[in-house]
Structure formats: C-alpha cells, structure tokens
Amino acid sequence: MSNSPARKRHPSPRLSSASPRLLYGAELRYYREAKGWSQARLAELLYVTPSFVANLETGRRLLHPDLAPRLDELLETNGFFVRHIEAGRSGPGPEVLLDIADQEQHAVTIRDWDLHFIPGLLQTDLYSAAFRRAHGPARDLPEQHRRWTTRTAHRPLLRTRSSPAYWAVIHESALRRPLGGPKTMAAQLDALAEFMRQGRAAVHVLPYTASVVHGLDSALRITETEGEYPIAHIVTGEAVKATADPATVSLARMTHDLLLNTALPHADSLSLIDGLRLEYDRQIVDTTAHAQTRPA
Asked: Where in this chain does the record put each HTH cro/C1-type domain (predicted)?
C-alpha cells in the first residue's frame, strides 16, 4: 500500500446542484487523476477514445453497464462505479440538454417542427443572417430557440453519408413570411426543394387549412442519439423547455407524428414550395421593374 497522503478533494461550487450523471463523471475524473492518468491513458485501457472518456467525465455520455466493473478494477475504487451505476445511467442534466450543436453532431434522428421559421438545419446563410437581424438577443424571442433556429452548421450536417435521418414539418406561414426579402426567400426555397429532391430531408408543409396542435404554437425538436436518452426541445410562446423526461419526450413524439400525418404529402409539399418560389421570383421582377421606372 502506498504511504503517500490521500489526495484532497476540491469540489467545484457548480457540482452542488449538478445532475447525478455529472457528479458520477466528476468522481471518474477524481479517481483517474488520483492514479496520475491522462484521459488518453484511461481510454487506452478501456479500448475507447479519449473524447469518450472526456464526455463521461462531463456527463455528456451515458455509461454502458459493462464499463462500470472495469472502471472499478482499473481505478481501484472498491466498487464505487458499480454501486452507483444508476447515477451514471441517469438522464442528462442541463449541461447536456442545452448543447444543441453537440446533439446534432451525434444524432441518429432529428425531428423538427416550426410554426414561424425555416428550421436551422435547413437555413441558407442569407436566411440565417436575416433572421439574426430581425430577431437578435434584444428581441423577445426565447434565447434558446434563437440559438437553435438561427444556427447554420458550418459543416453540412445533412449533406454527409453519416447524416442523421431528418424529418421536418414547417407551417406554410414560415414559407410565406418574406424574411430578408424576395431574393433571400427565393434562394431559401430553392435550397429547401433541393434537400427534398435529393432525399436528404423529409420535409412536409402544414398548410393554412390544417389546424395546429393545441398548446404548441411555436416550435419543437426531438433529437435521438445512439446509446443516449432522446431529448425534446419544446418552445411555446416565450417559454422554452429542454427535457429528457421519457413521458414528455413520448408526448413530443406523438405530437410530431400528428403534425406529420396532418401535413401535406412529400409531392404536394414540394409543389407548394416550388409555387411559392415562383411567386418570389415575380416579386423580384416587379421590384426591379419598379426601380427602373422610378424617376431619377
């Protein structure tokens, strides 16, 4: 047995109200550092990647049950990780729920619904810029919804072979709202139609004639990641809720399914988008003609 003094713990103030999974990860980091190992060294012994260990320590990844006894063996914890496996496999805390960009990168499926705007993963740069100008932090749009909706992925998430399966239901009003003007909207609808024709996104339009699900008057996203709890982001009015609660996520799935079944089929949705694209083209021509006939 080593005669070296026990390493003192220095708990972080932010852990006092942390999720059980984050506390579990903090213990993993404590025991790893007590051994004098780097994340890379522990990853090598576990046959995983260093980033996987890092995500376990920050509560961003669900612990597989088979890893718990191996951690106890390697880190000599007297069975700590097996005893507290429920904490390691508990739902993600706020530190995970709020990181939408990270969820997108690891997603297997993503389901979007938006009443007012084109969802972020489908936005063009011009549309996203127009959105930011119209709905910056000073406006009353929920901050989390703004971050999610305006995000344009610098890496083309829906254009890679490993892209998640993606379904989006968009209300017709979002397509008719001339955000950024006719040129911006024409380019946005072009991009939307391209996604649909290439089969990279299943986009359906909910027409004005259809009723919106009661209580869901803004937006919804459900993200599923392999080996992780599905997460729902629900925006109603000025309130936004991010949750991994199974009952809430199940209700969100049912809501999205209802919207999908109420929306127009693929071909009809594409036809409507193409028709609106022509309307914006006509507006561009009219605006140009008007400008040319205006007296100097």
From this structure: 28-80
Identify whether 152 is part of a domain. Answer: yes
Same domain, 20 and 55: yes
Structure tokens at 46: 């576990």
Q: Which domain holds residue 140?
A: 102-291
**Whether residues 239 and 136 fall in one domain:** yes
Tell me the whole-structure pTM to 2 decimals: 0.73
How far is it, in rounded angstroms, from Cα 200 to Cα 197? Answer: 8
Rg of the chain taking only CA atoms, in angstroms: 24
Q: How far is CA 211 from CA 92, 171, 196, 263, in A?
A: 34, 10, 24, 10
From residue 289, give the alpha-carbon distance in Å to each of 10, 82, 178, 294.
Answer: 70, 73, 19, 9
Q: Do 67 and 122 belong together in one domain?
A: no
How many separate helices (H) and strands (E) can be counted in the chain? Answer: 14, 6
Strand-pair category, 219-225 with 202-206:
unpaired
Give per-residue pLDDT as tens, 213-225: 655 667 899 999 8
Q: For the domain that residue 56 is a member of, what is the CATH number?
A: 1.10.260.40
CA atoms within 13 A on the CB side of 217: 6
